[in-house]
Design a protein that fits this description.
It is built from 8 helices and 12 strands. With 223 residues, the protein is an alpha/beta fold.
Length: 223
């Protein structure tokens, strides 16, 4: 499995990452809530391990933002806060499991593997929805308010990426790497041109725009 550990205690994170890698998993680490939110929103993970008390953005609000954006990756909360009320808050924020510190690594590993199996059994995502915009990933078709929208292959990839990250700001670098497979800045306006074309098809004939420019940051698709 590919796992993201979001933990600000470097010693605890190193111990956890080492154990997970030794168990055969691929592991990334984010040291704060800001970096954790970026990685969780821009990469595919099978399980997220999230500490509740994080600098930059706390674990509860991080998971709430992911869920609001349609990200349903299973989340295991880690916390020294172990009361019933604390566990309930974690689960209501969108967590799938809650483990109190200090914990035995064997129990953490077992819980992560259970969450990973649950994700696998749920099947792949074949449909994306944001407001009245619908994307069928199997038929490669797009509709808004029931009206078919014809997209070129690159426009489809661009829209798919925006929909998978709905509610989050998507930077130019993220788009270049994920939609164009560029790992450098080509110094062209290729993104601006494609976003403008996509806007014409997605927003032009509808009263409410879905694609928004976030000045100095990138773009955001939201209902």
């Amino acid at each position: 499995m590919k796992i993201l550990v979001i933990e600000d205690d470097n010693q605890a994170a190193a111990y956890m990452v080492k154990g997970l890698k030794e168990s055969g998993h691929v592991v990334d680490h984010a040291p704060d809530g800001k970096d954790g939110l970026f990685l969780a929103g821009s990469e595919h993970y099978d399980v997220l391990i999230v500490d509740r008390m994080l600098p930059g953005r706390d674990g509860l609000s991080l998971v709430e933002l992911l869920r609001a954006a349609g990200n349903h990756t299973p989340v295991l909360f880690l916390s020294a806060l172990g009361s019933v009320d604390d566990r309930v808050r974690g689960l209501r924020a969108g967590g799938d499991d809650y483990l109190t510190k200090p914990y035995a690594f064997a129990e953490l590993l077992a819980r992560v593997e259970v969450l990973g199996r649950r994700q696998t059994s749920s099947g792949p995502v074949t449909r994306l929805d944001v407001g009245d915009l619908e994307m069928d990933l199997l038929s490669r078709s797009v509709r808004r308010a029931g009206k078919p929208i014809d997209l070129l292959p690159r426009e489809f990839r661009l829209l798919e990426y925006l929909m998978r990250h709905a509610g989050n700001v998507v930077t130019r670098t993220m788009l270049l790497e994920s939609v164009w497979d560029y790992h450098f800045d080509p110094q062209t306006n290729v993104i601006d041109v494609h976003v403008a074309r996509l806007r014409q098809k997605i927003d032009r004939d509808f009263p409410t725009p879905l694609i928004h420019t976030v000045r100095g940051a990138g773009y955001c698709l939201r209902a």
